[in-house]
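Below is how a single chain appears once it has passed through the pipeline. First comes the sequence as given, then the structure the pipeline wrote out for it. We keep one example in the README because the format questions we get most often are answered faster by looking than by reading.
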Amino acid sequence: MATERELNKRIRSVKNISQVTSALSAVSAAKVRRAQHQVTATRAYAGKAFEILHNIASQPGVGHAAHPLLVAPEKITRTAVVVISGDRGLAGAYNSNIVRRTELFVRAMPTPVDLVVLGRKGRELLVRRGYKVVASFDNIPDPPGILDINPISRLVIDDFLAGTYDNIFVAYTDFINLVSQRPTVKQLLPLQPLNMEGMAAGEFVDEADVAGASTRSYIYEPAPAQLLDTIVPRFTQLQLFQAVLEALASEHSARMVAMQNATDNAGALVEELTLQRNKARQASITSEILDIVGGAEALAK
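Resulting structure:
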């Protein structure tokens, strides 16, 4: 059994750790509210962007061949996956879950897969496990802006147009609520305006509204084909930006929950250690009393 001094040291250590985890939980709680607001706000914008892209691509005389980012290749020879993870730990299983989901996807692909990783933790895990990471981006600002995502979207768009990759996916953690996040892999390129199930924000688009929009014909200035040249690259960037926002909100939520659980566990451990310390103190006092009584009896004899 540990001594009273050892138990006091452990209690002080656990209390210090509890203060750190409590502070991290409070910081993450403040950040997750801001990230959640940003995610819900951009979902509406992404939905309208879906509607516009769908409508322009459905205009008479405009096909998917109007822009190369809309064209699906005839044969898939090489694939890239943009993996969005975190730069820091202490977020429970957040980073390991998205890495595990990426591994399952890569193993299921019949073609070679290259990885573009956002976040230091994801890069370290994937490189350690032997996967090919061709590019890495760390320290993305929090909250991020659309310009912060521009180098990443420019990289994947240029590689797709150059024929380096025949299709590109994005692996991120979909934010559902504060206690539920879902690692997922969805298609980024080529864009399929008629099939929104594989897009990062497709599940939040009202399919009835999009279907109704496709039946209406508008006069565009300039021509629809010229508009697609501008809209499609920006929409690709929007898809990636939405995925980053979803992942960031999920990371803050996971860290808040993990740190709150750690704080609760630390409190329970302090109570248990305090009970053990009191028992050790009582045993020590009892031993001293027995020694005094034994000495008194010895003197009396």
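The first helix runs from residue 4 to 57.

See the next section for the split statistics.
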